[in-house]
Write a sequence for this structure.
C-alpha cells in the first residue's frame, strides 16, 4: 500500500449546494453569456486541478507525473520514448524528460537504451508504478463521483461542447 488510507478520508469533501459562478466570484452580471462561460470554465478547471493535486499529494507525485505514469501504463508492455510521452501529455508545457527523471528516482519507471536506435531511450513503468496506479484508480474513480449529478447524456454533451470550444 502506497498511502495511509486514513489520511485520504480527510480529503473527501461532501458536495456543496450548486452555486452559480456569479455567486462564487461575487459578480452580479456579465458582459455576455460567452464571458460567463469563459470564467466558469477557468474557475472549474482550477477547482478540478486543485482537487486532483490534493489527492495526488498523498502519493507524493504531481499531476504531470501521474499523467506520465498513465501514458506508460497504456503503452505496457511496449516501451515509450520521451517524445512519445511529450506528444500525449495533457499539459504540453511539461518537461517530460525531467518528469521521467523524477519518476525514475522514485522507482516508478525505468530506462534502458533502445536496441534499434542508440539515440533513443526506452522508458517502462515498473511493477511498483503499476501497483501505485492500481491503488490510485479506486480513489480517482471516487473523485469522478463529483460528476454523478450529471446524467450520462449530459456528460457526453459537456465533453462534446468542450471539444467544440477547442475547435
Amino acid at each position: 500500500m502506497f498511502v495511509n488510507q486514513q489520511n485520504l478520508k480527510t480529503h473527501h469533501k461532501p458536495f456543496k449546494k450548486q452555486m452559480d459562478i456569479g455567486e462564487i466570484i461575487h459578480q452580479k452580471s456579465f458582459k455576455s453569456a460567452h464571458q460567463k462561460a469563459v470564467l466558469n470554465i477557468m474557475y472549474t478547471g482550477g477547482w478540478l486541478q486543485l482537487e486532483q493535486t490534493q489527492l495526488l499529494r498523498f502519493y507524493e507525485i504531481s499531476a504531470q507525473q501521474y499523467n506520465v505514469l498513465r501514458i506508460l501504463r497504456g503503452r505496457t508492455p511496449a516501451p515509450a520514448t520521451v517524445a512519445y510521452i511529450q506528444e500525449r501529455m495533457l499539459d504540453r508545457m511539461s518537461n517530460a524528460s525531467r518528469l521521467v527523471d523524477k519518476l525514475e528516482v522514485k522507482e516508478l519507471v525505468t530506462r534502458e537504451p533502445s536496441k534499434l536506435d542508440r539515440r533513443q531511450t526506452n522508458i517502462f513503468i515498473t511493477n511498483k508504478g503499476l501497483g501505485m496506479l492500481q491503488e490510485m484508480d479506486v480513489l480517482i474513480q471516487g473523485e469522478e463521483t463529483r460528476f454523478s449529478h450529471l446524467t450520462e447524456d449530459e456528460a457526453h454533451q459537456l465533453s462534446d461542447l468542450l471539444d467544440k470550444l477547442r475547435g
About this structure: The two ends are 42 Å apart (CA to CA).
